[in-house]
Design a protein that fits this description.
With 242 residues, this protein is mostly helical. Helix content is 65%, strand content 0%. It has two domains: 152 residues, Hypothetical protein af1432; 90 residues, no CATH class.
Length: 242
Amino acid sequence: MPAEEDQRNISSKQEHTHEVCLNAVRIAKDLRLDDRVMLLAETAALLHDVGRFSQYQQYRTFVDSSSVNHAARGAKVLIEHQVLKDLAKRDQQIILRAVTLHNVFILPEGLDGDTQLVVRIVRDADKLDILRVVMDYLATEAGNRAEAIALGLPDVPGYSDEVLGALRRGEMAKKSSLSTLNDFKLLQLAWMYDLNFASSLRIVVERGYIDRIAATLPHTPEIAAAVDIVRNYVQDKLKTAD
């Protein structure tokens, strides 16, 4: 793999980390959290993808299923290098949980209040920026793209009925169901169902993510209907929050 492509892929993760931090801070401020919890959320956002760098160095991919779980590796890196050693044990635990759980399909039950709050903020902040990353990827010429962003999925016209069906039912689709780049776009639309805060949904609306993703998908009645379901879901959630 050419060195310039490696650098594009690594740089994309550096920029992603910066933007996830900004998203996390905005969400935390909108929630009017105290300074300690806000700093925990920002720190967890800063460190959430630390496992990506050794993952890419070893495997030259960001696809966990063909390499390693980057979230678990990230927590391992933080522990092995004692990155959090100067923090209180309780705060260390919250950050490690947020790093470990930021990419799981469903959160485990029994998380305490502060842990659950920080984990959910990081998960939302991460999803919001992945939406930006993929939009930027699609707008970039093929030869200049950070190709690892697309998870190795082919950019072909088709899409999966399974993924589209989950979107229309208001459900999250699993990454294992994805077979094309269009499936990944549909999955991102389904992420709206998994955003935890009204602030996150407002960011989606402000940045026009739903319409921007829809514009890159095949223009079929089935997809148009699914996009309308997502758009109405977000609008209804925001009305309830206001």
